Structure formats: C-alpha cells, structure tokens
Automatic annotation (TrEMBL):
Keywords: Hydrolase. This is Alpha/beta hydrolase. Signal peptide: none annotated. It comes from Lactococcus nasutitermitis. InterPro entries: AB_hydrolase_fold, Esterase-like, Mycobacterial_A85_antigen.
Length: 258
C-alpha cells in the first residue's frame, strides 16, 4: 500500500490543488495490470483538509488488506458546491478530479458501480451532494452529515458573509440543487445506495432523523443507523469501518492481535 500526495493544477479552480491517495498493494489485486480497482472518495469536514482522514482515523491501516483505492480531496470551507463567490468546488471534485486521478492511475475504475463516496459532517453533506448531483457514484455514505438545514436557517443571517458566500440567501438555497432533499426528490435515475449515521447527542441528530425519514419516503435504498455519540473523531473512526463493510467490496479486516 502506498500513500501518495498528488499536486496538480485545477483548470476549474485556476490554482494548484493537493489530493491524497491510498493505493493498494499489487499483492491485494488479482491481475494487477488489468483489473479495475474500486475507488472511494473520502471527504473531510469543516476545519479539515485532504490530510484529515489520514491523520485522525487510521484509514490506511483499516484497508491495508483490501483491494480499494481511496481519494481524499479538499474543498477548503466550500461545502463541495459551486459557491456564489466563484469557486466551483463541485465541478472541480465531481467532474475534473476523477479525470485527473484516472490519468495518473489508469488502473482505477471509472465505472459507476466501482466508484463510491463518503464523508463526515460537511463531507457527509458533500458525499450526498456529489452522488445525487452526478451519475458517477453508486454508493454514498454520510457520518454526522449536514443533510438538511431545517432548523439551521438562522445561520444564513448570523454569519451571512460566509453562508451566503457558499449558498446565497436562504431563499436561493431552498429547492436548489444544493438542498439535499430537494435534489433527491428530483433525481430519477442513477440513484445511489445511501448510508447515514449520526450520534444521538450530536447537534445534527434531529436533522439526520428528518432527512432519513424523507429519503425513505422517496424510496431511496437508505441504511440509516444511530447510536450514542457526539460530533467527533472517536465515533467517525469506528463508523468508517462499518461503511467499508457496507460497500460492495471484499473488505478484509485487519486481524487484531492481543
């Protein structure tokens, strides 16, 4: 297994960007030069970047025996959307980045059924936003994600420079493609399988409960789980392993020796 830092020029963002990639060992891949390696795009939350999962979760240890590549990009604080201030993170990550990755790593699959996406908090929002807004991902997972802004509308006024810079006004946000539930209602094909978890003591728990109920009404194939937990890495580190078990890959757990 190799952990690779790739610096590339993003035409969409007109700047150099860094992305971290975990690339599986040849011994884990049958017919390594020909086989299409499945790919998980793994998204950080607010205050994080492309290094967050590597530094905080031990993700490289979890998949060291598994044929899976992981791609970890950064959206800065841009919520993985095309912001109103002109930084088009959605286009850069959903449309441009897969082409960049495949150019450097042609063994990675471009097939929808072998491309997955997951994230935490802001990244949980991003995972659903990118999966529902494209036809590129067959599975999408959210851990403590911001899946709805119901009950959080006041944030658009309390920190207007930031939130309106990302989404515009609350009126512009409602029913736009940036509203997860509105986007989910409009999507009619290439619907991804969804997974969501949120801790019961998390400030986002009520929003996750509401979003899960609405997604089920829309007949999405959603696995929704809750347990005691707050908004922090202790829980996300545990839950990302459940996401790996949920994905259609041959996930091989590391044998724990006492």
């Amino acid at each position: 297994m190799a952990v690779i830092n790739l610096e590339y020029y993003s035409e969409v963002l007109a700047m150099n960007r860094n992305v971290k990639i975990i690339y599986p060992e040849a011994s884990k891949v049958e017919n390594f030069t020909e086989k299409e390696i499945p790919v998980l795009y793994l998204l950080h939350g607010m205050t994080g970047n492309e290094n967050s999962w590597l530094q905080r979760s031990g993700i490289e240890r979890l998949i060291r025996h598994t044929n899976l590549a992981i791609v970890m990009p950064s959206t800065d604080l841009g919520f993985y959307v095309n912001t109103t201030y002109g930084m088009n993170y959605f286009d850069a990550i959903a449309l441009e980045l897969p082409k960049v990755i495949h150019n450097f790593f042609p063994n990675l699959s471009t097939k929808r059924e072998k491309n997955f996406i997951a994230g935490l908090s802001m990244g949980g929002y991003g995972a659903f936003r990118l999966a529902l807004g494209t036809d590129k991902f067959s599975y999408a997972a959210s851990l403590s994600g911001v899946l709805t802004f119901n009950g959080l509308e006041s944030r658009f006024d309390e920190n207007a420079a930031y939130w309106q810079g990302i989404f515009g006004s609350i009126e512009q946000f409602k029913n736009s493609d940036n509203e997860i539930l509105a986007l989910a209602e409009r999507k009619t094909e290439y619907c991804p399988k969804l997974y969501a978890w949120c801790g019961k003591q998390d400030a986002l728990f009520a929003g996750n409960e509401f979003a899960a109920a609405e997604l089920k009404k829309l007949n999405y194939d959603l696995t929704y789980e809750t347990s005691d937990g707050i908004h922090e890495w202790y829980y996300w580190t545990k839950k990302i392993e459940q996401v790996l078990e949920w994905l259609p890959i041959n996930y091989v757990k590391e044998e724990r020796k006492i």
